[in-house]
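Hi team,

As requested, here is the filled-out complex form for the 2-carboxyarabinitol-1,5-diphosphate run. I kept the field names the same as last time so the parser does not choke. Let me know if anything looks off before we queue the next batch.

— J.
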Amino acid sequence: MPDLFATYYFHPRADTTPREAAEALAEEQTTGTWTDITTRTESVRRLDGVVESLEPLGTGHLARFRFPAELFEPGNIAQYLSVVAGNLFGLGRLDSVRLVDIEVPPALAEPFYGPKFGMEGVRRLLGTTDRPHIGTIIKPKVGLSPSETAKVAYEAAIGGVDLIKDDETLTDQAFCPLAERVAAVMSRLDEARSDTGRTVLFAVNISTRADRILDRAEVALENGANMLMIDVLTSGFAAIEVLAGDPSINVPLHIHRTMHGALTRNPDHGIAMRPIARLVRLAGGDQLHTGTASGKMGHVPVDEIRGDNEALRGPWHGIRTVFPVSSGGLHPGKVAAELGALGTDMVLQAGGGIHGHPGGTAAGARAMRQAADAFIEGVSAEEYARDHPELAQALLKWGSSPARS
Ligand code: CAP
Ligand code: MG
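And here is what came back:
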């Protein structure tokens, strides 16, 4: 059975050679420890991690490790992570170490449900073929009542968004109980559909304790939810798996990655978004935030984001695809940069960039759609704004800006 491979970028401690550091990582994550032990028999050594390649890169080293498939409990993400992203980050013989990617063999991918909908399924729900989806996050993040939330959602819907989501810190607080919020928003989205003929998805944030996820999903569905949202890193991958594996959960899953910056931001130490993205795809997320080329949290090179998005959209063990979501500091003046850098098979989301529009939420949504339409027609936003007033107002307030390199 093919083995699992993992690639790390690391800086050894001053008194440690790169080879010694790599061997220390392989030992710690498989059958060794800080000293030799009499109990590590030849039979056990079949589970040893192996340094397959080791080469200098920049100021550090890049190493690819083979971890025997037998080491892993098929289908257990928690255990996979304990091997590829466990004690190694604390090893003293490495000054820093970053998990760059994982290569999961078919047999270790097979037990997972994967996305129920994928990009194709979400597009089918909205009747789109290849244009980018436009989403918004209800802002302010927290504090609105259910009916106030629903009013903002209605405005965004008639303005032309495809998707509306809760923000990552809104769940079931007293000021906006989840059941009431879902019922109120879905009722206003039904109204918007009567007005516009368009379906709009509302991703309600059901992040909570793992053993309560299904109950909370059922409450959301009973109140008409047509999409669920999970903060994967604060809730755990199991929260996605529980929903993906339950046939009664017949709506797509929008996966937010809040807290990821603690792992992904430092280019020398932590966990890159790539392995996280692969595990979210295995677990069954239908959409996943992967970062922007021009937004407010721009610490990752655009090339890396492109690779992360391809890990979601490309063929992989027959598992459905996942819609990459570009979000964070976007507004209509950044749409061309985003689509030019990351392609149109994306979800572009704007919170402040829609609700901060001088004309209000509906005008902000229209401006985002107009900016996307301009890009698809090969027209500059400035040119398109000549006869699209909402886009003109957005450009007047925020200007337009290029993508990072
Ligand atoms: C964006 C957002 C999202 C970020 C998360 C926020 O709001 O709602 O959580 O996109 O970042 O709270 O910042 P704005 P990422 O559009 O108003 O910035 O997608 O990189 O995980
Ligand atoms: Mg947010």
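Two things worth flagging: The CA atoms of residues 315 and 369 lie 29 Å apart. The chain has 17 helices and 13 strands.

Thanks,
J.
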